[in-house]
C-alpha cells in the first residue's frame, strides 16, 4: 500500500515565480504520474525535502519580473547545489542564465503568441520531436549570451537562444511555455525532462492516491466521528467517499436542501449517499425556512447574507442532533491551498466555492479533515471516477453556495424558482447531450430576469418572463469568455424553453466577457 511519503517521493519541485501558467506546469507533470507541488520561490532546501522526499528535479516557472530589476525574485542557491536536473521556463530560464554567468537583456521586440522554433540540438529535451516546433512565447527579455558550457538547442529570429542546455548536468532553459496547450508538443518536452532526464518516480496515480488518502484519514481521525457538509458537488462527494472507505460509519454526511438547487439535484445527492452505502447520511429539506426569510429580498448581497447565515444556522442545528462529532471534513483543493499560501502570484484572488460551514462550533474548527488538499480539480475528478462515482457527479460544473438564489434576479419565490429550474434543465440537458458540459463550457446555466416582455402566442398577446442563457469558457474563473455555442443548439434550447416552460416567452444569450461582467448575474 502506498504511504503518502512514497507517493510524493522522487517527484519534481516547481518553484513559482509568479507566472499565470505556473499551476499548469504542475498539472502537466502530474499527468505524467510524477508528484509535482508548486512551491514559493523562497522555499528553503529543508522545505523542498519535506515537500518531495528525494526530489529528482526542479522546474523554475515564468514570472512577470525582469531579472535585472532590483527587487526581482531570485534563484535559491540550493537549486543549483542539489545536483538534480533543472528546467527554467521563460523567467526561470533567465534566472538560470544570470545565476550561471550568462547575460539577459530586454529584447527589441516583445514576443507574444505563437512562434515556430527551429530545434538545433536535442540534449534529450527535444528527443523524438521534429525540427520545426510550434510554441507559445510571452516575453520581453531574452538571453543575449548563454552561460559558459551551454549549447543552443532551439532558436527563432527574435530569440536566437530560444532553448539552451547543458545536457550533461541536465540543466535546461526554454524561452517559450511548454505547459500551455498552444505549444503543440509541450507534453513531450516535459516528459523528456521529468521522466527521461530526471527519472522522476511515477506513483502519482488515482489508485495510489486513494490508498494513501484512506490510510492518512484513518490515522488522522482514529475512532472519531467526522461531519461532512454535503453539497452534491464533486469535491464534497469525493471527499465523502474517501472518508467513508476509510472509517465507514464514523462518517456523518449532512445535506441541507435550501430549495434553490437545480432540477433533480436533491434527489441525486440522496441517491448517491444511498448507492455508496453512507449509512449515517442526514438529508433535510428546509426550503420553507429559507424562502420565508428571503421573501421580498431583491438585493444580491442581502440575499447572500441571508442564505449564508440561514445555512450556517440550519447546518449547525442538524449537526447538533448527531451527537458527538470530532472532525469536520472539507473539500479544500490544491488551488485553494496555493492561493492561501500566497506563493507570490500577483493579483490572484478568486471567489471560492465555500460551502457555508462558517457557523460551526469553535471546537470543530481546528479539527479539519481535508483529503483533497493536494489535488487539482482534474485529479479530484480522476479519483472520483476511480472510486466509481457516477459521471453526473464527477463532471458537475461549479455551483455557487447561494444556488439559484443569485440566478433568480429580483424576488425569490417558489414559482419563479420552478420556472428557472425548468429552463436551466432544458439548457443543461441539451448541452450535456452535445458533450458541451464536460468540455466546451466551464459553467453554463440559466438566469431568470425581473422583467416581462410582450410576445405573441397563437392569436394572443402575452406578457411573460425572460430567461437568459449564460455559458462561459474559463480556466480560473477570474476571467471568462462567453462560449461560442452552435447556433442550432441555441435555437433548439430557445424553442424548447418558450414551448415547455409556462410563463416564459423570450430567451436571450449573454455575450459578455468577464471582466467587465461577472459570470453570475448577481
Ligand atoms: P463571478 O460571478 O464572480 O463568479 O464571475 C466566479 C465563480 O464564483 C462562483 N460564485 C460563487 N460561489 N458563493 C459561491 O460559493 C457565491 O456567493 C458565489 N458567487 C459567485 C461562480 O459561480 C463562479 O464559478
Task: Describe this structure in a few short sentences.
By secondary structure, this protein is of the alpha/beta class. The protein has helices at 4-8, 22-31, 45-51, 77-81, 91-99, 186-197, 206-221, 234-247, 265-275, 287-294, 300-320, 334-341, 377-386, 391-394, 414-433, 487-500; strands at residues 12-16, 38-40, 57-60, 86-89, 103-119, 132-145, 151-155, 163-166, 171-174, 226-229, 251-257, 282-285, 327-329, 368-369, 443-457, 460-473, 481-482, 504-509. α8 (234-247) packs across α13 and α15 runs antiparallel to α16 (487-500).
Structural class, judged by helices and strands?
alpha/beta
Number of helices: 16
Largest sheet: 9 strands, mixed
Number-wise, the strands total: 18
First-residue to last-residue Cα separation: 47 Å
Q: What fraction of the residues are assigned to beta strands by DSSP?
A: 15-25%
Mass-distribution shape: globular
Percent helix among the residues? 25-40%
Amino acid at each position: 500500500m502506498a504511504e503518502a511519503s512514497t507517493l510524493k517521493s522522487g517527484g519534481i519541485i516547481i518553484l513559482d515565480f509568479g507566472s499565470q501558467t505556473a499551476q499548469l506546469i504542475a498539472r502537466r507533470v502530474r499527468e505524467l504520474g510524477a508528484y509535482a507541488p508548486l512551491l514559493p520561490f523562497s522555499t528553503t532546501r529543508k522545505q523542498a525535502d519535506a515537500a518531495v522526499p528525494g526530489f529528482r528535479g526542479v522546474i523554475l516557472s515564468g514570472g512577470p519580473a525582469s531579472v535585472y530589476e532590483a527587487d526581482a525574485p531570485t534563484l535559491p542557491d540550493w537549486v543549483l547545489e542539489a545536483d538534480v536536473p533543472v528546467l527554467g521556463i521563460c523567467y526561470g530560464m533567465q534566472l538560470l542564465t544570470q545565476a550561471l554567468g550568462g547575460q539577459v537583456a530586454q529584447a527589441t521586440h516583445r514576443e507574444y503568441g505563437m512562434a515556430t522554433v527551429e530545434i538545433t540540438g536535442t540534449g534529450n529535451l527535444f528527443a523524438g520531436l521534429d525540427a520545426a516546433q510550434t510554441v507559445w512565447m510571452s516575453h520581453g527579455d531574452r538571453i543575449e549570451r548563454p552561460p559558459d558550457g551551454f549549447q543552443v538547442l532551439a532558436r527563432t529570429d527574435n530569440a536566437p537562444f530560444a532553448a539552451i542546455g547543458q545536457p550533461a548536468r541536465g540543466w535546461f532553459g526554454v524561452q517559450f511555455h511548454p505547459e500551455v496547450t498552444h505549444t503543440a508538443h509541450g507534453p513531450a518536452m516535459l516528459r523528456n525532462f521529468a521522466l527521461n532526464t530526471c527519472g522522476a518516480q511515477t506513483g502519482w496515480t488515482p489508485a495510489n492516491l486513494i490508498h494513501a488518502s484512506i490510510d492518512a484519514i484513518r490515522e488522522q481521525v482514529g475512532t472519531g466521528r467526522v461531519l461532512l457538509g454535503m453539497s452534491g458537488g464533486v469535491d464534497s462527494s469525493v471527499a465523502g467517499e474517501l472518508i467513508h472507505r476509510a472509517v465507514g460509519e464514523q462518517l456523518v454526511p449532512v445535506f441541507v436542501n435550501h430549495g434553490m438547487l437545480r432540477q433533480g439535484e436533491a434527489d441525486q445527492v440522496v441517491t448517491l449517499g444511498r448507492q455508496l452505502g453512507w449509512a449515517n447520511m442526514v438529508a433535510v429539506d428546509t426550503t420553507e425556512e429559507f424562502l420565508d426569510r428571503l421573501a421580498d429580498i431583491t438585493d444580491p448581497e442581502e440575499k447572500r447574507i441571508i442564505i449564508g447565515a440561514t445555512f450556517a444556522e440550519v447546518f449547525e442545528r442538524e449537526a447538533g442532533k448527531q451527537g458527538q462529532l470530532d472532525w469536520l471534513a472539507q473539500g479544500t483543493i490544491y488551488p485553494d491551498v496555493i492561493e492561501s499560501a500566497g506563493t507570490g502570484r500577483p493579483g490572484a484572488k478568486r471567489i471560492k466555492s465555500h460551502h457555508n460551514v462558517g457557523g460551526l462550533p469553535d471546537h470543530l474548527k481546528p479539527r479539519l479533515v481535508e483529503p483533497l488538499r493536494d489535488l487539482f480539480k482534474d485529479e479530484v475528478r480522476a479519483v472520483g471516477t476511480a472510486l466509481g462515482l457516477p459521471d453526473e457527479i464527477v463532471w458537475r460544473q461549479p455551483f455557487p453556495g447561494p444556488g439559484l438564489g443569485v440566478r433568480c434576479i429580483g424576488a425569490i419565490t417558489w414559482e419563479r424558482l420552478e420556472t428557472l429550474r425548468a429552463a436551466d434543465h432544458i439548457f443543461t440537458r441539451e448541452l450535456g447531450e452535445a458533450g458541451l458540459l464536460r468540455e466546451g463550457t466551464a459553467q453554463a446555466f440559466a438566469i431568470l430576469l425581473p422583467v416581462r416582455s410582450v410576445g405573441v402566442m397563437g392569436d394572443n398577446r402575452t406578457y411573460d418572463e425572460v430567461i437568459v442563457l449564460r455559458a462561459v469558457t474559463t480556466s480560473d474563473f477570474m476571467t471568462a469568455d462567453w462560449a461560442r455555442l452552435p447556433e442550432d443548439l441555441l435555437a433548439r434550447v430557445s424553442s424548447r424553453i418558450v414551448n415547455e416552460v409556462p410563463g416564459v416567452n423570450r430567451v436571450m444569450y449573454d455575450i459578455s466577457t468577464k471582466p467587465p461582467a461577472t459570470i453570475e448575474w448577481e
